[in-house]
Amino acid sequence: MEFGQGEQNLLHCDEANEICDELNLPFVKIVSSDSVRGRALIALGRDQIGSEVLMASVANWEAVGGRTTFGEYTSRIATALGRLGRFGEALVLSDKALAHETSTGDIFYQPESNRLRAQILLSMPDADRQQALHYLTKSRELARAVGALSFELRTATTLAEFLRHEGRSHEAEEALQPVYSKFSEGFDTPDLVAAKSLLEDVS
Questions:
Q1: Per-residue pLDDT, 4
Q2: Of 110, 130, 174, 200, whose CA is between 20 and 30 Å from 63?
Q3: DSSP labels for 141-168?
């Protein structure tokens, strides 16, 4: 679930909650539906309530021994807190997400967790741009290693934005154009729309 799908997923959450109430499935409602709601709210930029809902869902999931998706959800919470200016908390949670994914071998979301870590660093008033570049480079390598083209595109877009900010427009185009060119469909999706817009700016 990413930006552009938030409103639709909130509607699905309401429908799912009604079904859970009818079938007396409180656990599914608390853990599964609430996690979707939290992610949807964060995708819509409603970071305060979204992070609170997703934190509660993660806590409930951990309480019953759940481990899958911990890295992904924790990275999303960290992103929301970073946008709220709560950088210390955001970095702590980002560390937890990355450590969990490394220790468990949960490689699926690692590229995105590293990219989101870079975004948090870049949003800080005293941004450590070299450290952010380290995480972007790692994200790109991981995405390529697992063949995650959608994650590679997001990382290439963030890296291109990084380079444009430094006045390196040609390098920004070189970082993004080859990845964008790998796509043959889905050009109306938010990630590809954003990538195309950025390419037009730096070309």
A1: 47
A2: 110
A3: HHHHHHT-HHHHHHHHHHHHHHHHHTT-
Query: Quick one: which H or E segment has residue 199?
Result: helix 190-202
Listed residues 130, 148, 166: the one ending a domain: 148
For residues 102 and 13, membership in a common domain is answered with yes
- What contacts 173, CB < 8 A, 6 or more positions away? 160, 199, 202, 203
What mean pLDDT do residues 111-121 have? 98
How is residue 172 written in tokens? Answer: 């920004």
**Is residue 67 one of the residues assigned to a domain?**
yes
| pLDDT mean over 173-183 | 98
Domain co-membership, 65 together with 38: yes
Structure token digits, residue 101: 């994914």
Number of residues in the chain? 203
> Taking the model in full, what pTM does it have?
0.88
Task: Characterise 167 by phi-psi region: left (phi > 0), alpha (psi -120 to 50), beta (else).
Answer: left
Distance of alpha carbon 35 from alpha carbon 45, whole angstroms? 16
Residue 186 CB contacts under 8 Å (≥ 6 apart), including other chains: 192
- Kindly state whether residues 67 and 164 are assigned to the same domain: no
Report the C-alpha gap between 24 and 19 in whole angstroms: 8
Average pLDDT over the chain, rounded to an integer: 90
Residue 190 has what pLDDT?
92
